[in-house]
TrEMBL record:
Pfam families: CBM60, HemolysinCabind. InterPro entries: CBM60_xylan-bd, GH, Hemolysin-typ_Ca-bd_CS, Hemolysn_Ca-bd, RTX_toxin/Mannuronan_C5-epim, Serralysin-like_metalloprot_C. It is found in: Secreted. Keywords: Secreted. This is Iron-regulated protein frpC. Its main location: secreted. One of its GO terms (cellular component) is extracellular region. The lineage of its organism: Bacteria, Pseudomonadati, Pseudomonadota, Alphaproteobacteria, Acetobacterales.
Length: 896
């Protein structure tokens, strides 16, 4: 069989990336801590973003960079000046993985000095290359070409060879009709490479949305998204792409009708719950994790292997860890989605035979869709069969090695140990055994290197807490081949057994024929029930045996510690651990890392320690303890819950609950039901998510976002901000309770005691109240009505209508042809128009003042310094800043 050179698993994982939108303040991306936590959960360290909103992005992206995330930043995009974009990426230089040209230039035109189209895109790309080469901070940062959104060869050819201004080509690849990734990728490379011949490609956007209503042709179910995404990531690496950035991290807005495809590309749902695709990626990167010091630099080996029975749509990828362990991914790419019926197609199962060029001591088969534990384990094999369906399986192969057997645990003074002294005759290799007590495996496979004929033994020491009485110690001999092929015999011996140093067995027992020998012993005199609980120390991920009490995780690796039905004490190391108490009233102690603590059933006590810790609370008796300044911590609660001191964040995971903050600045998230969130003291952020929620900010400058549903929001004292997106949303503020504002994506009228309104969508009407209000339009065609009070109105871009109403109002139309409306029925006042412009098409509409012609309007105007004052009936006057009477025209006025 042919030998294949493996790739480093670290190189594969480093090829994985995901798109984010750090500037989207009104989406889940607003929570940058959750963005980081989700990336860490995925095991992905690369993100792609656009440098179009520098003032909103710097701190957020730098925060990701400081926590180990590398950035691919698009430059030359709409939203900010090129100078500001270059200034931003220079400040982010320590965290950059690459810079990238403009996005999808055939849809989003890139321009430079008034030149657009193909020439404009090439000019902007050259501008980037020239700037990078002249910048000390950026000169070593690789450049990716601009992207073109197309699927035909001619569209790419039209932009010509641009390799002089880029180090990598760029590809955006999506899969209409639920097509498999390989079927599209295999034809896409030569087309896209026309713009960067001879250069490696980067896929900066690719993925499958989970919108399945039938609108559009790309959506698939969440289950199919998970399978297709695993296949996609392996396909792109196998085909030689430098990196693949999935689109995108989280569903960036809600779409309860399932009709907007753009709302469903995320690996996480809008509420940050993981879709199956996110869980599958987490499992894959966990299975392949390589924490060795040379994981990014060691020289890989070669392995001879064959896979028989693999269909034509199947594929393999050989990877290697720095420990020398091989990881063979095997997958069969079947079409899984019927875009007509909008249903998943049942995959066919195929049995394939994997043959290896030599015997491996341990072979494990993992399924990333099912978790991170091996689904099957083989010892001393060179061939195995697997059942392959529609997503990758990972076969892990480790050579058998003779190693010293460390103690299974460290114990307290009253703990108890069982020591087996083992030896073997190794004519054709060392013997292998496994030890059980009362049918429970107490050891992994042990290789016996000690020579029986020379009187040598090696100790296998086990620790635990057993009840007094009769017990059975079983020793299973795994690899004797007596009666099999000639010349493969080997023997194993149990020379002695001691309990707490007392001999229970003194004559050697000889194990043959792959058999198990049992030793029936009474431990009444040696082990007495009720002594000090046993504490197990482990430098690997460990699940406590049913008789063990406590677990201490040691070493410097990120580990998982799992308890049992007893009242356990589980203590983390400082690397960031996952601790699970399971049954019983457990105590979980985190270390200095970012720990996850889940006490399980029972009233548990959880203390995360330093680091950004996460807690799962499901019992009213659960207690969470955090010290001051010990990280940014979060609780996921399936019961109504109040945050304890020094915990910052709360997510409700069941419907109809109440979540309450503490005296700190909290972030509270509701579920998809009707929840109640109470911020209490501090500057809090409250997200109701779906459902008709009740949000109470309490003291402090709070932000209240009810999410979908008709929500009731009361900010309390402080300068509060509200997100309004439903006509049923109600905002309540008391008098003199701060300077408050509403961000509305619907037409909206301010309720009493709220001072400011910002429209966040186009074509809306924003109306003030009886107070002095500040109203802000969007970049579209808005209507702003100040009503009573001395109001200030900002139209911004678009063809806006501004009506100050009663009071002395100030009106800024902004860019666009705006209408300044004055009605006698609104009441008297002295209003000011700051930026009237005949050139932009602004007009003045006068209603009810008896001014019905240009001549009458002209007669009502008088020059006053650099302003024009128009005096009207009813005590109304209007001041036009920076204008002259001669600067007005008849076309500037409307009278009906």
């Amino acid at each position: 069989m042919a030998s294949t050179t493996a790739s480093r698993v670290g190189d594969f994982i480093d090829s994985l990336g995901v798109n984010i939108h750090s500037q989207f303040y009104d989406t889940p991306y607003y929570d940058i801590d959750q963005v980081l936590a989700s990336l860490q959960y995925l095991g992905i360290g690369n993100v792609r973003d656009a440098a179009g909103y520098a003032s909103l992005q710097l701190d957020r992206l730098a925060y990701l960079g400081e926590n180990g995330i590398k950035l691919d930043m698009m430059v030359g995009v709409q939203g900010d000046t090129y100078a500001n974009q270059f200034a931003l990426v220079e400040k982010l230089a320590p965290y950059l993985r690459s810079l990238e040209g403009p996005n999808e230039v055939n849809y989003w035109e890139a321009t430079l000095d008034g030149v657009g189209g193909i020439a404009g895109a090439r000019a902007v790309q050259k501008l980037i290359a020239d700037y990078v080469s002249s910048s000390a901070a950026l000169k070593d940062v690789p450049i990716i070409n601009f992207s073109v959104a197309a699927s035909d060869s001619g569209s790419f050819a039209a932009y010509g060879d641009n390799s002089a201004n880029a180090d990598y080509g760029n590809a955006h690849i999506y899969y209409g009709g639920g097509a498999t990734s390989y079927s599209v990728l295999s034809t896409y490379v030569p087309m896209a490479n026309q713009m960067n011949p001879g250069q490696q490609m980067v896929i900066t956007e690719s993925g499958y949305p989970t919108q399945t209503s039938g609108a559009g042709n790309q959506g698939v179910s969440e289950a199919v998204q998970a399978k297709y995404t695993l296949n996609l990531l392996l396909d792109t690496y196998k085909l030689g792409y430098k990196a693949t950035y999935l689109y995108e991290l989280v569903d960036s807005f809600q779409d309860s009708t399932d009709t907007n495809q753009e709302a469903h590309y995320g690996l996480f749902n809008y509420d940050w719950s993981a879709k199956p695709a996110a869980m599958a990626i987490h499992n894959l990167t966990t299975i392949l994790s390589d924490t060795g010091s040379t994981s990014d630099s060691f020289t890989t080996g070669t392995l001879g292997y064959s896979v028989s029975g693999l269909p034509a749509t199947g594929n393999t990828l050989l990877l290697e860890k720095s420990s020398g362990t091989y990881e063979l991914a095997v997958w069969n790419e079947q079409k899984l989605w019927d875009s007509t019926t909008l249903t998943e197609i049942a995959a066919k199962s195929t049995t394939v035979t994997v043959t290896l060029d030599h015997v491996f001591g341990t072979v494990k088969v993992y399924d990333p869709l099912l978790g991170t534990d091996a689904q099957s384990t083989y010892s001393n094999v060179s061939q195995l069969q697997i059942s392959l369906t529609d997503h990758p399986l990972v076969i892990e192969m480790a050579d058998a090695k003779s190693v010293a057997i460390p103690p299974d645990s460290s114990t307290t003074t009253d703990a108890h140990t069982i020591t087996l002294k083992l030896s073997g005759d190794s004519w054709q290799g060392d013997a292998q055994v496994k030890v059980f007590i009362d049918g429970v495996a107490m050891s992994d496979t042990v290789t016996v290197a000690a020579q029986h004929g020379s009187g040598q033994t090696q100790d296998l020491t086990l620790s635990g807490h057993w009840d007094a009485g009769a017990h059975t110690i079983s020793v299973q001999f795994l690899n004797d081949a007596y009666g099999g092929a000639a010349g493969t015999d080997r023997n194993a011996y149990v020379d002695q057994i001691l309990v707490d140093g007392n001999e229970l067995l003194t004559s050697a027992s000889w194990l043959t024929y792959n058999r198990t020998i049992d030793y029936a012993v009474s431990l009444t005199d040696q082990i007495v029930a009720g002594k000090t609980p046993v504490t197990v120390s482990s430098a690997v991920s460990t699940t406590l045996a049913s008789t063990a009490d406590n677990l201490v995780l040691t070493g410097s690796a990120a580990l998982k510690g799992v308890g049992n039905a007893l009242d356990n004490v589980i203590t983390a190391n400082d690397a960031g651990n996952n601790l699970y108490g399971k049954d019983g009233a457990d105590t979980l102690n985190g270390g200095a890392g970012n720990d996850y603590l889940d006490g399980g059933t029972g009233a548990d006590h959880m203390a995360g320690g330093a680091g950004n810790d996460t807690y799962k609370v499901d019992n009213a008796g659960d207690v969470v303890t955090e010290a001051a300044n010990a990280g940014d911590d979060r609780v996921y609660a399936s019961i109504s819950y109040t945050l304890t001191d020094n915990v910052e964040r709360l997510n409700l995971t069941a419907e109809g609950l109440t979540g309450t903050g503490n005296a700190q600045d909290n972030v509270l998230y509701g579920s998809d039901g009707a929840d109640t969130l109470k911020g209490m003291a501090g500057n809090d952020v409250l997200y109701g998510n779906a459902g008709n929620d009740t949000l109470e900010g309490g003291d402090g400058n709070d932000t209240l976002n009810g999410g979908t549903g008709a929500d009731h929001m009361a900010g309390g004292a402080g300068n509060d901000a509200y997100i309004v997106d439903n006509a049923g949303d109600v905002v309540v503020e008391a008098a003199n309770a701060g300077d408050d504002r509403v961000y509305a994506s619907i037409s909206y009228t301010l309720t009493d005691n709220v001072e400011r309104l910002k429209l966040t969508a186009e074509g809306l009407t924003g109306t003030g109240n009886a107070q002095d209000n500040l109203l802000y339009g969007s970049d579209g065609k808005d209507v702003l009505k100040g009503m009573a009070g001395n109001d200030t109105l900002y139209g911004y871009a678009g063809k806006d209508t501004l009506a100050g109403g009663a009071g002395n109002d100030v009106l800024f139309g902004g860019a666009g042809a705006d209408t300044f409306l004055f009605q006698k029925s609104d009441g008297a006042g002295r209003d000011t128009v700051v930026d009237f412009s005949h050139a932009e098409g602004d007009v003045i509409q006068l209603l009810g003042f008896g001014v019905d012609s240009w001549a009458e309007a002209h007669a009502a105007m008088k020059q006053s310094g650099t302003s024009v004052v128009m005096t009207l009936d009813g005590g109304e006057s209007v001041v036009f800043k920076n204008m002259t009477v001669a600067g007005f025209h008849a076309s500037d006025f409307l009278f009906s």
